Amino acid sequence: MPVTIKDVARVAGVSPSTVSRALTTPALVQAETRARVERAAAELGYQPNRAARGLITGRTGNIGLIVPDLTNPFFPGVVKGVQSRARESDFSVFLADTDEDPTAEAGLVRALSKQVDGIVLCSPRMTEEDLRSVIGETPVVMLNRRVGQIPAITIDNVDGIRQAVAHLAALGHRRIAYVAGPRLSWSNKERARALRTTTNAAGIDLIEIGNFAPQFAGGVAAADLVLAAGVTAVIAYNDLVALGLLNWFATRGVKVPEAISVMGFDDIVLSQMVSPSLTTVAQPQEQIGRAGVDMLLQLLEDPDRAAAARRELPSQLMVRHSTGRAPSN
User: Fold this and answer.
1) What's the pLDDT score for residue 226?
2) Is the preceding omega at residue 276 within 30 degrees of 0, hence cis?
3) Spelled out in words, what is the top-level CATH class assigned to the domain 157-283?
4) Which segments constitute the HTH lacI-type domain (predicted)?
5) CA-CA distance, 206 to 191, in Å (whole number)?
6) Close Cβ partners of 319 (under 8 Å, ≥ 6 residues apart)
7) Residue of 4, 9, 123, 2 whose CA lies nearest to 68
8) Tell me, what's the pLDDT at 116?
9) Backbone angles phi, psi at 244, to 5 degrees
10) Domain 62-155+285-314 class?
11) In 3D, which of 137, 75, 131, 130 has the Cα closest to residue 112?
12) DSSP state of 9
């Protein structure tokens, strides 16, 4: 006879509902109880029947994940976190890429809503109005954006920018540029707002340049405008844009950091592989993905308690070789 959830409950000394929570949403079960359930399931060789569970719960056992651009090295880390955490709770992940297109993003949310139990929406580009119009169709957790009471995981952009500006100020920089990212990006707006506040408080001139695509080509396109601005340092919207700046500065014979300091945001793997290595503000990419799934599972288990959940993860300055003392002239 196949092992059932009731068998596991009997051996673990808990109710079948507790077994279900321990195996599907372990964050909602005390560690000791969860460990007891997992030991009982392992001893009995219990394998959840997804089809049967779906008939009972009305759930598919699937999670949707929508990202704006899979070619951006930031997002694979988030995907890895989502997949690993979902797998731990016996959920499959349907992955979709919007190619930075808000219209495609809205269409994907509607399409996936019919096939999954909930959606993790990463760095959405839709307007607030469009977000509100599509999100009511299925439970959604957003990553890297906040809109009203929609559950969200974000990064502390304000403190990340504070660390970045403090670093440049300590090196003597008094006039810096910000190469802005996509106009519809919430993170871009947050970073620009934090830069204005922080530089103003520090008595530093801030020159805002762009909006540019959050890609290597965006940095190349912005590079000559940065040089024309007469700044001694530049903070890019993300690492890819910063790498584009570094590449074009090298082509122009502009030495980094001797003539100009360059800083990124994200800490993608490539930031350590270039020369000079890129000073950047690190975001815990895999942790963002895992936290998003945790929140979505909580939302599925207890919609009322998790309906307006918020969590902010820390950012961390990573000082490398692309920043140095401001040139004396």
Assistant:
1) 98
2) yes
3) alpha beta
4) 3-57
5) 13
6) 167, 279
7) 123
8) 94
9) -65, -40
10) alpha beta
11) 137
12) H
Over residues 299-323, the pLDDT tens digits come to: 988 877 666 689 999 999 999 999 9
Domains 62-155+285-314 and 157-283 share a fold: yes
pTM to 2 decimals? 0.81
**DSSP per-residue letters across 235-264:** EESSHHHHHHHHHHHHHHT--TTTT-EEEE
Residues across the chain: 329
Contact by Cβ (8 Å): 261, 270 = no
Tokens of 189: 């707006």
Distance CA(302)–CA(202), nearest Å, equals: 45
CA–CA dist 75, 312 (Å, integer): 18
Which CATH code fits 5-48?
A: 1.10.260
CB proximity list for 131: less than 8 A, separation 6 or greater:
124, 147, 150
The DSSP result for 162-221, as a single string, is HHHHHHHHHTT--EEEEE---TT-HHHHHHHHHHHHHHHHHT-EEEEE----SSHHHHHH
Angle between helical axes of 5-12 and 31-44 (0-180°, round to 10): 120
- 310 φ/ψ angles, rounded to the nearest 5 degrees: -135, 145
Tokens of 257: 């950091």
Identify the burial level of 159 via C-beta atoms within 10 angstroms of its C-beta, where 0-12 means exposed, 13-18 middle and 19 or more buried. Answer: middle
What pLDDT does 26 receive? 78
Cβ atoms within 10 Å, residue 94: 16
146-191 confidence digits (pLDDT tens): 998 899 999 999 999 999 999 999 999 999 999 999 998 999 999 9
Radius of gyration of the chain (CA): 23
Q: Provide the residue ranges of all domains of the chain, joining segments of one domain with +.
A: 5-48, 62-155+285-314, 157-283
Q: Phi and psi dihedrals of 87, rounded to 5? A: -60, -35
Q: What is the pLDDT of residue 322?
A: 98
pLDDT band at 294 (very low <50, low <70, confident <90, very high): very high
pLDDT band of residue 263 (cuts 50, 70, 90) is very high
Asked if 38 contacts 18 with a C-beta cutoff of 8 angstroms, the reply is no
